[in-house]
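In the current project phase, the collection of sequences with tokenised folds has grown. One resulting record follows, to show the layout:
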Amino acid sequence: MEKRDMAKLIEVEDELHNMDKALEQLAGHGHASGEFIKLDNVFDVIQNNSHECFSSESEESMQAFFDIMQDRDKTPEQRADILINGMSSS
């Protein structure tokens, strides 16, 4: 996957996060309620196309991936670079 495409998927994930927060405020429940579980597919595609150090099933690998995805102080492009190239890009 190209960095540009990964960054676009990360932007979508960011917007899904924002939408979920708005749904929780408006309706009292959101993604965590399980009603929109297919939204996790975006997250899964990003992880499946990330560097091998983020794609293993180990707890450390999963936590590192999650931490990068949730680091909204970094741009989607910066996070895409890290996820595609591994931790050495951070």
Observations:
- The helical segments are 3-27, 40-48, 52-55, 59-70, 76-85.
- The chain has five helices and no strands.
- The longest helix spans residues 3-27.
- Residues 14 and 72 are 8 Å apart (CA to CA).
